[in-house]
Amino acid sequence: MAGDPYKELGVSRGASADEIKKAFRKLAKDLHPDKNPGDAAAEERFKRITAAFDVLGDAEKRAKYDAGQIDADGREQYAGFGGAGGGGFSGFDFGKGARSGGGGPGGRASFEDLDLDSIFGQFGARGRGGFGGGAGFGKGADVRAVLEISLEDSISGAVRRIQFSDGRTLDVTIPKGATDGQTIRLKGQGSAGRTEAGDALIELKIAPHPLYRVEGGDLTMDLPVSVPDAVLGGKVRVPTPEGEVVMTLPAGSNSGKVLRLKGRGAMAKGKRGDLLAKLVVTLPDAPDDALTKFAEDWRTKRPYTPGR
Asked: What share of the chain is helix, strand, coil (3-state, %, to 5)?
């Protein structure tokens, strides 16, 4: 429960409205939590003077308090119940100019008449936002958007343009090693506010890739190889997110064999995985008489059943 609001602000019961505002302004500057980081006593005192001004800064509520109709928390006083009615002070939102908790009608202190920028302008966004972490008195609201990027962008980084619902466009720098679901905060790119704009929060969404499958930090893919290369071995080209590389295919390589390229995969937990290329032995698209004759002879003279 708050104490006597006159005592909290250090003013007499006959103090004028200007004297009350002046007292609150001075105390708010001295006790603000951003000026006293880690000082729980100062923060508690700041809450109490704010509650006190919530009562005394409103002429109607001040009159009710002086008449004993409400208590120091702004709650209605009923005979024999010592302040029932509930809903005491629970933190002030300077963006709205009213207590978060309950109170009777007319429950708005005259914060509109105070130059709050002169009080809180020396502090950061928290100072202007008050308790509770909302958009606050002078800071505009944050805006959110989803930006779809390619797998290659997430690995190598890029600059991509995004358009907001209000028609604004913005170039977003995608950092190297970005991950799916990662949020990029762009300071001052949100909605306009009285003293500063809010932020833009851009959530990154990695689009499905036509070639690679993401498995943790690894990328897997199917790599078609010709029958001669599979039988005899040779050099094969393997596509990676950064471009093609040449790998040596061992002789006698069968479908299902996996070639591993270290460090050419996706990002996961700050590390880059591997690229796993699964071989798929592939026949030519057009009929080949020589290959057909070879297969016929092979089937007759050297029959075998795969997997046995």
From this structure: 25, 25, 45
